[in-house]
């Protein structure tokens, strides 16, 4: 009896040591992150006027916003156009990913589809690939293949266009979303559907009334992940679409101008562009805006109980 107690006590002590070590590492990382932020806080406040770059003369860093937080980026119309563009494209990407990914994830979870293992490997590979390599592959596919001739014949152009942003975002957003949605459906016992079918429900009704409500937290978590991944896309968009901030307003469609998406880049590209133009504090502030969006999204996923659906 005493030997069993000692073994049990020893296992508990080991578990407590592992947990204590994990929390210690987490606290150290948080302290290091906070110190990194605090030690660079002065970078958010402009100390001198930014250089006069031809394409950025509209950003008046030598005016009253010179010493403000991030150079007064929140009063810059270009910043809010970037926010509009990010929200619109990320939302459109999320909806397309959901229309394609949720049925596909359900099929992968419930049916023995030939090549299912290959699909899982492909999704995992897309997730770990650098987004810039995906953008480069898409440029080659659409510019150096028969698809380029098809675009010329139909008059449709995807490279360096606003719809191209959604296409690039969709690749990684769909892969991330499907991983969460498949995990959500895997957690729902198929017997629940079989019972509903045995009571007279059709396959569609069993899916809507039984499976979908049971997988709801994971589905919502997948939607959030898909949206955030689309909003954070950078390398692929930069290679596939370039920047739009310096293009003439007349080169955009009336609908684009009506939605306030003209002469704008997604927030991630806007951050890079501002730093490249020498507006470091502006780009730093945009970067912290992206960090805030990511933090709120992850917190929402955790509140939904979606930890196991994503990680």
Explain what you see.
There is one protein chain. Residues 58-66 have low confidence and may be disordered. The chain has helices at 2-39, 77-110, 116-128, 131-143, 146-154, 162-186, 190-198, 203-214, 216-231, 235-241, 254-258, 267-276, 280-303, 307-310. The chain is mainly alpha-helical. Helix 6 packs antiparallel against helix 9 (216-231). It has one domain (40-310): Orthogonal Bundle (MetI-like fold), CATH 1.10.3720. It contains 14 helices and no strands. The protein is globular, with a radius of gyration of 24 Å.
Beta content comes to under 5%
As for the CATH topology, it is MetI-like fold
What is the CATH superfamily? MetI-like
* Radius of gyration of CA atoms, rounded to a whole number: 24 Å
* DSSP helix fraction: over 70%
For the report, how would you describe the main beta sheet? none
CATH architecture: Orthogonal Bundle
What's the count of strands? 0
Quick one: CATH class? Mainly Alpha
Low-confidence stretches: 58-66
The string of secondary-structure elements, in order, is HHHHHHHHHHHHHH
Q: How many structurally independent domains?
A: 1
The N- to C-terminal Cα distance equals: 40 Å
User: Judging from the principal axes of the Cα atoms, what is the shape?
Assistant: globular
Query: Based on helices, strands and strand pairing, what is the structural class?
Result: mainly alpha
How many helices? The count is: 14
Mean pLDDT equals 78
Oligomer: single chain
């Amino acid at each position: 009896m005493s030997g069993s107690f000692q073994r049990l006590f020893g296992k508990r002590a080991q578990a407590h040591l592992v947990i204590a070590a994990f929390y210690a590492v987490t606290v150290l990382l948080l302290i290091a992150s906070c110190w990194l932020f605090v030690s660079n806080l002065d970078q958010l406040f402009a100390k001198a006027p930014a250089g006069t770059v031809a394409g950025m003369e509209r950003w008046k860093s030598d005016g009253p916003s010179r010493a403000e937080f991030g150079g007064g980026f929140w009063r810059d119309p270009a910043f809010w156009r970037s926010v509009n563009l990010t929200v619109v494209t990320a939302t459109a990407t999320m909806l397309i990913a959901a229309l394609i990914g949720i049925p596909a994830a359900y099929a992968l979870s419930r049916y023995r589809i030939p090549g299912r293992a290959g699909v899982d490997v492909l999704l995992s590979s897309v997730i770990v690939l650098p987004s810039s390599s995906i953008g480069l592959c898409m440029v080659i596919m659409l510019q150096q293949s028969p698809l380029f001739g098809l675009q010329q014949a139909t008059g449709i152009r995807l490279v360096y266009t606003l719809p191209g942003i959604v296409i690039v975002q969709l690749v990684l957003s769909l892969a991330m979303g499907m991983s969460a949605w498949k995990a959500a459906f895997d957690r729902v016992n198929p017997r629940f559907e079989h019972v509903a079918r045995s009571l007279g429900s059709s396959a569609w009704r069993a899916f809507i009334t039984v499976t979908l409500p049971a997988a709801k937290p994971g589905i919502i978590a997948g939607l959030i992940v898909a949206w955030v991944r689309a909003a954070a896309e950078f390398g692929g968009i930069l290679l596939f679409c370039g920047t739009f901030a310096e293009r003439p307003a007349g080169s955009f469609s009336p609908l684009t101008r009506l939605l306030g998406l003209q002469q704008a880049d997604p927030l991630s590209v806007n951050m890079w562009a501002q730093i490249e133009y020498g507006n470091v504090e502006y780009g730093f502030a945009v970067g912290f805006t992206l960090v805030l969006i990511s933090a709120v999204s992850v917190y929402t996923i955790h509140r939904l109980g979606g930890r196991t659906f994503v990680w």
